[in-house]
Amino acid sequence: MAGFPSETRWVARLTPRSTESVNDLLLAIGGLDVWERHPDTVVVAASEALLTEVERRGLARVERLATVAEFLEQTQQQQDRDGEGRSSE
User: Fold this and answer.
1) How confident is the model over 33-82, as pLDDT tens digits?
2) What burial letters (b/e) apply to 42-79, b meaning 16+ CB within 10 Å?
3) d(CA 70, CA 89)
């Protein structure tokens, strides 16, 4: 993705090639911080450089969801909204 430094960390959804499984993908790529694992996809935190390499090698389709910082901020905001209106016991 143009314009982002290679050290930018992303939360991304990886979908393995149709001939590969999530297990195969995880074995082929080191350095992934797995956040969610599903039968056909995996959500990870990884550097821009690593995601670019995954794309270059054709190992998986990469969908960048948000930078890690943006994702954590959005999550905190959602938790703050969910907590509003609740009384402490």
Assistant:
1) 999 999 999 999 999 999 999 999 999 999 999 999 999 998 888 888 88
2) bbbbbbbebbeebeeeebbebeeeebbeebeeeeeeee
3) 32
The pair of structure tokens assigned to 76 is 């905190």
In the prediction, which pLDDT does 1 show?
45
Residues 6+ apart with CB under 8 A from 13: 41, 42, 43, 62, 63, 65
Please name the residue ranges forming H helices in the chain. Answer: 22-28, 48-57, 68-83
Best CA proximity match to 65, nearest among 4, 9, 12: 12
**Residue 62, C-beta contacts closer than 8 angstroms, at least 6 positions apart:** 12, 13, 14, 51, 54, 55
Entry pTM: 0.79
Pairing of strands 33-37, 42-47: antiparallel
| Interatomic CA distance for residues 73 and 88, integer angstroms | 24
